[in-house]
Amino acid sequence: MAKSMTGYGRSEVKSRSYGGFFIEIQGVNRKHCDINITVPKTMSVLEPKIRAIVAACIARGRINVHVGQVKVQEEHKLWYFDKDMVKAYYRNLKAIKKELGLKGDLDIGLISGCRDFISSKEPPELKPASVWPYLSRGLKKAIKCFQDMREREGATICRQIKKPLMDISKRLQEIRDATPLLLDHFIKRLRKRIQDLGVNVKNDDERVQKEVAILAEHADITEELNRMQSHLDQFRVLMKKPEPVGRNMDFLLQEMMREMNTMGSKALHTDILTQVIYIKGQLEKIREQIQNIE
């Protein structure tokens, strides 16, 4: 099924040494592939690897990739006591107590109240090569979520354009059914013109027959109808393909619009022109929808 260019994916991964990372991917429609990557400065060396993985999965669209470290909650930090400082503090307190003759106990409560003894454990310096195995796994998960959403959006677009395609097929059949009436229409119009000019010409006059033959050839829209049907069939096939088809769809719509313009200029009959105008309107609706197809 054709994919949309719009989508969003996110994943989180954790490493024992460096904590957690999150990867976000967002896509919007764009004629060409444009990948924008934002990573922490310490991981900037990994940007080419990230770009290569994303580019292998995306053919068109503006893709924003954001990689960041998950903020560690205070209660999840690793804390430690400076034992040497605690011992020195305790010895000094005992000496002061003895020298001044103070009463009271020196317990853990007094010592733990001094925050200078406690500090959070600093994470080790980030090494991109060590982070990459975790990050690449998270990137692939985010891309999977991103692609799943694009497939759902693409399926929705395809459902929305099925009705216009059915309407076009119906109107084309009505035009095909009306084409035998075109020759009679042109013959009657030619006779009226001759009568309006006051010229006495018989119906079987050779000049009249030649003019009728020219008009019939000019009004023949069989080829345009056949090509339109072929384009519609190709368009339906494209809708079912998983690979990028947006450009091909756009090209087919241009060709169908060209056929309808030719048909309208050749078949100068009110009923057929009405159908042509309606079909062109439906083609324009489809064109607006597929602007978001990859």
Describe what you observe in this structure.
The chain has 294 residues and is of the alpha+beta class. It has three domains: 91 residues, Ribosomal Protein S5, domain 2 (2-Layer Sandwich); 42 residues, no CATH class; 133 residues. The chain contains nine helices and six strands; from the N terminus they run βββαββααβαααααα. Strands 1-2-4-3 form a four-stranded mixed sheet. Strands 5-6 form a two-stranded antiparallel ribbon. Strand 1 and strand 2 form a beta hairpin. It is rod-shaped. The mean pLDDT is 83.
Number of domains: 3
Unreliable runs: none
Instruction: Give the strand line-up of the largest sheet.
Output: 1-2-4-3
Radius of gyration equals 38 Å
The H-and-E topology, N to C, reads as EEEHEEHHEHHHHHH
**Number of helices, counting only DSSP H or I runs of 4 residues or more:** 9
Strand content: 5-15%
- How is the biggest beta sheet arranged? 4 strands, mixed
End-to-end separation in angstroms reads: 11 Å
Mean pLDDT: 83
Principal-axis shape: rod-shaped
Secondary-structure class: alpha+beta
User: How helical, in percent, are the residues?
Assistant: 55-70%
Number of strands: 6
